[in-house]
Amino acid sequence: MKITQxxxxxxxxxxxxxxxxxxxxxxxxxxxxxxxxSHAPMAxxxxxxxxxxxxELYYKDWGPKNGPVVMFSHGWPLNSDSWEAQMLFLADKGxxxxxxxxxxxxxxxxxxxxxxxxxxADDLAAVINAxxxxxxxxxGFSTGGGEVARYVGRHGTARxxxxxxxxxxxxxxxxxxxxxxxxxxxxFDGLRKASIDNRAQLYKDLASGPFFGFxxxxxxxSTGQIDTFWVQGMQAGHKATLDSIKAFSETSFxxxxxxxxxxxxxxxxxxxxxxxxxxxxxxxxxxxxxxKLIEYAGGPHGITDTHKDRLNQDLLEFIKSSN
Length: 323
Prior knowledge:
Order of helices and strands: HHEEEEHEHEHEHHHHEHEHH
Structural class: alpha/beta
Radius of gyration: 18 Å
Helix content: 25-40%
Largest sheet: 9 strands, mixed
Number of helices: 12
Strand order of the largest sheet: 1-2-3-5-4-6-7-8-9
């Protein structure tokens, strides 16, 4: 499949699945590598946390330290810089805002193994525990939405006050017998092939096309947004971003979402060509009891940038609300 065909197909292609898919589900168990290192202390500096299995996670901690805490989990193949518009806005409003670079991404270290949702969720837990924050609003975008859901599935909501899922991959993206309207596996196989063949070009094509909706008629492309996406993607490790495709596409978050008992807001672009709204946000909102769904008409996947002013206000109103 040519790269242009692949990009147009993401989110829409259906058909025969090549090979079998076993949708991942929460194991409820810690990875053996982590278990063997369970007695190792976590190390923390002003900008890094070292997990018990030796992975150094970069994080940023902005705003007043006594402010209400909002934590952000980023999408693939980006890093915490992708949340700058929201973090700057909320920090100026008196919130303490925290975001980390996922293992293998950005300024965090690049372990060969552990690029899966269980480890991602445990790393988020490591940041929360190391900073000892409570009453946290967790905000996850795309893959980060899956990370937040899996965190709740594995670690509960004792430290969580609210959850926001933005363009999230929940409850599952890939087409399976249980998810017949999902995206065919061959699309993700094509994404893996494009990553191996020339991931630098893949990131350029994603950013200049469907991610920000710049491939839509009349859209005005932003060179800055395209370049920023590319830079963040190339900062990530090749192995990590390759493995993450399986993690964000094949992981089932159904059981995780059922454990979400705190107020939850789901926000999604109605014209999301990367994570189709019909089988993700609309289904997620039904699985989470009491969840509120906000759809951005004409919004693409990258609404954290293209619709940042509206998103900032929606986040602020939800976080400050008594619900």
